[in-house]
Amino acid sequence: MKGNYKAKTIISKILVSAFVWFLGIIMVVPFVWMLSTSFKGMNDVFNFPIEWIPKKFTLNGYHALFKGDVPFFQYFLNSIKVSVIALIGTFFSCTMAGYAYAKVKFAGRDKIFMMKLMTTMLPGMVTMLPTYIIYSKLGLLNSHASLWLGYFFGGTFGVFLMRQAFLSIPDSLVESAKVDGANNFRIYWSVALPNVKGSVATLMFMYFLWSWNDYEKPLLYLWDKKLFTLPLAVKAFSDDQMQNYPAIMAANVVMLLPIMTAFVCCQNFFVESLVTSGVKG
Fold it and tell me: Structure pTM?
């Protein structure tokens, strides 16, 4: 009886693993095709059967990307600028707010936090027009500030993520630091933050992903082409090189590389945070 149960368990694990691998391969295939196409000539893109490894390896797609009429490198730098500023603000605002909501006792703390969570129920379309009017009154339209400002002062998801992470730290650890004479900022910086590195890495990766791939805000707030970020740049480049599929794929590869690099660097922390966040709260 035990032998049959053990055999069924092993078979079920094998089937589940095979299914997961199958789904993983399906999801990777478009990326592999994109990468392969970026190194092909224009006449080799639609060869059948598909040449996963180009027979004629060429960098013409990347040459057209950086030597064409579209200043792609400038757009790349614009995206880096916006993402870096957004991440700096996200780090301090979300971690400090999360720590305050989790470990600092003040009047109306939980009610204020619940009100903040309620803002997640508002669709983006509802706040789009009021935000545009506010930015217009502040003179922020057609500037990079309109892109990173929303991230800089802490998004609700980031605050919630960090609050849940700080709640996992024992109160006794915080109290012992207070007994030693540490103030709230000292405890936050030297005691709490080192214990939630996984959640911080997840926070930074998620907000980097959102700010880097943001298409809606640049489309809405920017009209000077010199200020365009990569999502708009890829669209403009695709329009400019309508039939040059290797160049279009090269543009997508360049845009995706920072995301892949960030994910590889943070994946262990990312998994750890998904497992531990939300345990307490």
Answer: 0.83
